[in-house]
Specification:
With 396 residues, the protein is of the alpha/beta class. Helices cover 39% and strands 14% of the residues. β10 and β11 form a beta hairpin. The radius of gyration is 25 Å and the shape is elongated.
Length: 396
């Protein structure tokens, strides 16, 4: 069955996470995608963790469903190759700084001169306008600037980075959505466009949508780090006799069911616990009653009772248990494909489940320049000796 984006072509010029994840999501839904590396491998291939054969595991995970070529964007002799790739593409993805865009000839105006209806999804730290437009940024720096690091972690601890690059990954999702919206607009009008996705914009949208910024601006309250507790209701991490679980007693209905499960229905009449926010404020008074129950049970025992009682909860597990999780397997959220030198490799599955046009993970990530001959030769009709010469001259 063909993916919903079958026939769409994506050129991924990006480095690191956001652009790669954007292009991967489009490819998962059927688009044909080509990743462009520097000759010898782009800078993100130098980032750990590495597999036993030296392959960068994150780059592999982010680039399945793509073919791969190399191209030195600085080389004037490589310009015809870039122009052929851009002319082929419906969507181009990049995350270069403005000086680099101009140097490489990949500004929107440059690309539009090659293909009039091209859609450029441009990732950056701060966007092309405003006082910070020229600054460089990574996920962590933007987590810091938008307050995420100061509402993460435990009270009294230093600012704490969220353990995965959530801003980058969210930016990638925003980029994929933006690309599909721009494709819809192009179908209706015949016109391409530039789409900017800035990490600062994405992170600001996240903390505002979650109520953090409105709380500061309207209530003049700065949310503190809460460790294992959630904000605004009674929810948090609790020790069992062999590990930890997370319990979320959000809303009155779940709160009542939760008290039944732990045998403390006497708390229903306590005025300090009349609603979500009251229970959040008085969480320290509730914790001992909950811990008196959880610490007498194993995590599996507690989970069985909470699940039976329809209380949202989860056992807190090490990351090495994810691949074996029966729910992860049932939803095909990790797809093992053979990678040369590594064997079976766990690629991320497709989170969006379409009933009529499902996405799929069809092929592993390309090695550096793996498809040079196939694309430059088979698709653009360069002769083998020309391709060999490009390689000798450091163009590909």
């Amino acid at each position: 069955m063909q993916g919903i984006l079958n026939g769409i072509k994506v050129l991924d010029l990006s480095r690191y996470i956001a652009g790669a994840y954007c292009a991967k999501m489009l490819a998962d839904m059927g688009a044909e995608a080509i990743r462009v590396d520097d000759p010898g491998g782009s800078v993100d291939r130098d980032q750990p963790p590495f597999g036993p054969n030296g392959e960068p595991l994150q780059v592999l995970a982010l680039n399945c469903n793509k073919r791969g070529v190399t191209l030195n964007l600085r080389a004037e002799k490589g310009r015809p190759l870039l122009e052929k790739l851009v002319a082929w593409a419906d969507v181009v993805v990049e995350n270069f700084s403005l000086p680099a865009k101009k140097l490489f000839g990949v500004t929107y105006e440059d690309l539009k001169a090659i293909r009039k209806d091209v859609i450029l999804v441009s990732f950056s730290g701060y966007g092309s306008t405003g006082p910070a437009a020229d600054m460089l940024a990574f996920d962590s720096t933007v987590q810091g600037e938008t307050g995420i690091m100061l509402i993460t972690g435990h009270p009294g601890t230093p600012p704490t980075r969220v353990g995965i690059s959530i801003v980058d990954l969210s930016a990638g999702v925003h980029g994929a959505l933006a690309a599909t919206l721009a494709l819809y607009h192009r179908r209706e009008t015949g016109t391409g466009q530039l789409v900017e996705v800035a990490l600062m914009d994405v992170a600001t949208a996240m903390v505002t949508a979650y109520g953090v910024v409105p709380e500061c601006e309207v209530n003049h309250v700065v949310r503190p780090p809460l460790g294992g507790h959630a904000y605004g209701c009674y929810a948090g991490t609790f020790r069992t006799n062999d590990g930890w679980i997370f319990i979320s007693a959000l809303n009155d209905g779940i709160w009542k069911r939760f008290l039944r499960v732990i045998g403390r229905e006497d708390l229903l009449d306590d005025p300090r616990m009349k609603d979500d926010y009251s229970r959040y404020i008085h969480r320290d008074q509730i914790d001992p009653a909950v811990e008196a129950w959880t610490t007498t049970k194993s995590s599996k025992e507690a989970m069985a009772l909470l699940t039976s009682g329809r209380v949202p909860s989860g056992e807190i597990k090490q990351p090495d248990t994810v691949a074996g999780n029966p729910q992860v397997k049932a939803r095909e959220m990790i797809v093992n494909l053979e990678v040369p030198g590594l064997g079976p490799f766990p690629f991320p599955g497709v989170p969006m489940k379409f009933s009529m046009t499902p996405g799929s993970v069809r092929c592993r990530a390309p090695q550096t320049g793996e498809h040079n001959a196939e694309i430059y030769g088979g698709m653009f009709h360069y002769r083998p000796e020309e391709i060999e010469q490009f390689s000798k001259e450091g163009i590909i």
